[in-house]
């Protein structure tokens, strides 16, 4: 009888151990499969089609001024696209402000092509099952031209430094009905939501991996999503007021993330779940 009781106790102990380990094992296996799935898709990234559309739009003469964007200055001189995204956001003297890639593209569409800004940013993101918007396509083309380039956002001008500092404060600002901040999900290790690991974006390594893979093609949405979309969606999930496209707050946050990610090599458009 005592022997049976001892065996039962051992069996129960082993059973508890297995149950305790199961979630961790399942999570590890699931994450590995997700990464393998992304690798399989990367060689035929659907975002490539959007990038091609963006390149065509960049070179096409359009708008009231019948001009292309080939003289657009993204920070490395008029017409230079190669490597520009990896150094954005940055200060632009012609507007006396820090701009990210998307707000700068809008600026060029307005100044070079004659489009109305309100019309350009009226619908910056495509909906489910819709074709990529012009802004999504243009952002995809511009970021593709920085693939493999090291992230190196300048922090020389006082307004660049101020944008970083505001971005850091915004990242840690708590508010909304859930009293959330960006840091609630993205500061500290071992956090995840459902099957998605949440990187600690206050540290260079995780910040590099995150920053360098946006814009990205979202498999679940069948669309290329930009960094402005990422900021907007994070605010939505926190139940904060929706960010205006190209707002100062969005640019400040991107600046904070980009400066933290210094040295990482751009690998975008990437594949996301």
From TrEMBL:
Binds 2 heme groups per subunit. The active site is at residue 234. Heme c 2 binds at residues 182, 185-186, 234. Transmembrane segments: none annotated. GO terms for cellular component: cytochrome complex; periplasmic space. It catalyses: S-sulfanyl-L-cysteinyl-[SoxY protein] + thiosulfate + 2 Fe(III)-[cytochrome c] = S-(2-sulfodisulfanyl)-L-cysteinyl-[SoxY protein] + 2 Fe(II)-[cytochrome c] + 2 H(+); L-cysteinyl-[SoxY protein] + thiosulfate + 2 Fe(III)-[cytochrome c] = S-sulfosulfanyl-L-cysteinyl-[SoxY protein] + 2 Fe(II)-[cytochrome c] + 2 H(+). It comes from Zeimonas arvi. Heme c 1 binds at residues 72, 108. This is SoxAX cytochrome complex subunit A. The gene is soxA. Its cofactor is heme. Residues 53-151, 166-266 form the Cytochrome c domain.
């Amino acid at each position: 009888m005592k022997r049976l009781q001892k065996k039962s106790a051992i069996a129960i102990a082993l059973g508890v151990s297995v149950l305790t380990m199961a979630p961790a094992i399942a999570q590890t296996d699931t994450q590995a499969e997700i990464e393998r799935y992304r690798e399989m898709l990367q060689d035929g990234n659907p975002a490539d089609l959007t990038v091609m559309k963006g390149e065509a739009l960049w070179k096409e003469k359009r708008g009231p001024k019948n001009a292309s964007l080939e003289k657009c200055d993204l920070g490395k001189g008029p017409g230079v696209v190669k490597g520009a995204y990896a150094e954005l956001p940055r200060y632009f003297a012609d507007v006396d402000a820090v701009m990210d890639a998307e707000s700068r593209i809008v600026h060029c569409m307005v100044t070079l092509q004659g489009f109305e800004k309100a019309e350009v940013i009226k619908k910056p993101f495509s909906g489910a099952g819709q074709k990529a918007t012009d802004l999504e396509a243009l952002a995809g083309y511009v970021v593709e031209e920085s693939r493999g380039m090291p992230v190196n956002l300048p922090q020389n001008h006082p307004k660049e430094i101020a944008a970083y500092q505001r971005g850091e404060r915004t990242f840690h600002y708590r508010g909304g009905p859930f009293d959330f901040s960006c840091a609630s999900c993205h500061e500290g290790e071992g956090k995840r939501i459902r099957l998605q690991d949440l990187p600690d974006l206050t540290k260079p390594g995780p910040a590099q991996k995150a920053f360098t893979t946006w814009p990205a093609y979202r498999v679940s949405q069948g669309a290329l999503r930009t960094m402005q979309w990422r900021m907007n969606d994070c605010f939505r999930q926190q139940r904060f007021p929706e960010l205006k496209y190209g707002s100062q707050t969005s640019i400040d946050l991107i600046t904070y993330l980009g400066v933290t990610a210094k040295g990482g090599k751009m690998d975008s458009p990437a594949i996301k779940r």
